[in-house]
Write a structure and sequence with these properties.
This protein is an alpha/beta fold. It contains 7 helices and 9 strands. The protein is about 35% helix and about 15% strand. The two termini are about 35 Å apart. The strands form 2 sheets. It has a 7-stranded parallel beta sheet with strand order 1-2-3-4-7-8-9. A two-stranded antiparallel ribbon has the order 5-6. The protein has helices spanning about 25-45, 65-75, 95-110, 125-130, 135-155, 190-200, 210-230; strands at about 10-15, 50, 80-90, 115-120, 160, 165, 185-190, 205, 240-245. The chain has a domain at about 10-180: TIM Barrel.
Amino acid sequence: MPAGKEAMRFGIFYEHQLPRPWADGDDQQLLADALDQVELADRVGFHHVWEVEHHFLEEYSHSSAPELFLAAASQRTTDIRLGHGIVLTAPQFNHPARVAERIATLDLLSGGRVEFGSGESSSEAELGGFGIDPADKRDAWLEGLEVALRCMTETPFGGHDGRFVQMPPRNVVPKPLQSPHPPLWVACSRRDTILMAAEKGLGALSFAFIDPEEAARWMHDYETTMAEKCVPVGSAVNPNVACVTPMMLCDY
């Protein structure tokens, strides 16, 4: 491994998919099974568990309250990192003060194991359900993220009067255990969002199913852009890329 490079780490990723037909108790069993899997992943040395936030996406994802699932996981594990992959930070989805409060509380409950991924959503069902114009979603994501980070790190928060958030000065408590805040990530599915992540000092959560050669090119572009153009959105840079890849386990 070259100097300065970290070893590859492995994690698990949950959408909480639940295909029809549905029976009473299916959602409860889905969550119970996932918590058992996370507990096992912690024991055998997986580094991360990532949990999405989606709304109204029947069958595809029944993970509308990831902060509750990760809080439950925090009490059944000791080492595995608890990743929001992602929190929807447009204020129409989640007010930034509430995002800051939930992230900080989970960080305290878990002993400082939170990874704070954020994103916009690309689904009309979600955007329309919360009254978000798709043309505004990138700006709303960024303003919500910036205000949430200020709520986590300013004592007291100095207030904000923006396009999507208006909030008076308040001391937002508690503050996270990790200082200045948990590592920051953003959801990426295209090369241009990978480069945007690098420019803003964010880890790139790549949800595109790409081959290893393409992943290597994206990684090179990410590192080059971060070195040349990075202006961090947070108080710390997270120079890492995570890639989602499918696998199957079966009896043999």
